[in-house]
Amino acid sequence: MPWSNQNGGGGGPWGGGGNGGGNDQGPWGKGPQPPRGGGNPPDLEELIRRGQDKLRQALPGGGGGPGAGGGKMIAVVVALGLVGLWLTQSVYTVQPDERGVELRFGKPKEEVSQPGLHMILWPFETVEFATIVEREMSTGGSSRTGSSDGLMLSGDQNIVDVEFKLLYAVSDPKSFLFNLAQPEDTLRQVAESAMREVVGRRPAQDIFRDNREVIAAEVQTIIQTVMDSFPSGILVNQVSIEDAAPPREVADAFDEVQRAEQDEDRFVEEGNQYANQKLGQARGEAAQLREEASAYKDRVVNEATGEAGRFLSVYEEYAKAPEVTRSRLYLETLEEVLGGSEKVIIEQGGSGSGVVPYLPLPEVRKNSTGGTN
């Protein structure tokens, strides 16, 4: 054994025997301990030889002697190991949520491996995997993360803190794996840039309350256009604005502005209600006047129509008997005109002589009228 010849054959690997004391001391103050049965430790070459004998007995044919037969056995074992290594590297499995892209001498193939068991010619061919399930990416939100990524300048020179999320998936595994070095980092940077661009064109009120959906749709369109220009193999399914708020340093002042705007909206609403009330009242009065005018017009037209009809009927009768009708009209007209007169007309040359002309006929009429009442 090699250990038995070191240091003059006296001390083993710790070299204690060369000190002349016969006390085998190691670096920890104590030399190696022999087996319990006494004697020297087993020889390393003997252990190797025994292992080779057992391996030859396990192989088919029992193996040969320690010469050429032993070398052949080792070659077989090495060959089997290489075959096993080649199989483990050549056979691969694609999971249902993955797609595989095979590379031959580092150049990707055109076809994409679908889920299942596949085989390549390793080491000339390798494979890369891409997960195709939909994933979520959050960005912005400086008040929550403590960074300044979400701080943006709006179109009306206000600073807003925007937090939004992306839902995206891999639509082209080959482009996703080989066109960009870090496609997800690129997607994050493009998303932040697109959001800053859209927010910078609009007033802060749009991002706070009014047009979040419109802004999110516009940002999604910009992101997809930029990612397709690489191309990146990424499909952006949705952009949603989770929160938009002013920076913490101006939050109190912004709350005051919001309350003032709410008061303004309330006053405008009250003014609109008062205007609607007065306008409704005026419209009602106008409608009433129109109805009265229409009724007056109908009444006057009907009266005129009736008078015209009466005149025509009288004219028809007059045409049938002009003399009689003329006399009747004359007498009716005199009766109508002189019926309320206070004068008494006595025909001269008649029989009305004596005291009749001296009677106070108007007084008699008044007395008779008063007595009747």
UniProtKB/TrEMBL annotation:
Question: Which stretches does UniProt call biased (Gly residues)?
Answer: 7-24
Coiled coil where?
272-299
Give residue ranges for domain Band.
89-258
Q: What is its main location?
A: membrane
What ranges does the record give for the region Disordered, renumbered to this chain?
1-45
Source superkingdom: Bacteria
What is one cellular component GO term in this UniProt entry? membrane
Provide this UniProt record's keywords sorted from A to Z: Coiled coil, Membrane, Transmembrane, Transmembrane helix
Tell me the compartments it is located in: Membrane
Q: Which InterPro entries match?
A: Band7/mec-2_domain, Band_7, Band_7/SPFH_dom_sf, HflK, Membrane_HflK_N
Task: Give the bilayer topology.
Answer: Single-pass membrane protein
What subunit structure does UniProt give? HflC and HflK may interact to form a multimeric complex.
Q: What is the similarity comment for this entry?
A: Belongs to the band 7/mec-2 family. HflK subfamily.
Q: Which PANTHER family match?
A: MODULATOR OF FTSH PROTEASE HFLK, STOMATIN-LIKE PROTEIN 2, MITOCHONDRIAL
According to its UniProt entry, the function of this protein is described as: HflC and HflK could encode or regulate a protease.
Q: Which NCBIfam families match?
A: hflK
Q: What is this protein called?
A: Protein HflK
Please name the source species.
Hoeflea phototrophica (strain DSM 17068 / NCIMB 14078 / DFL-43)
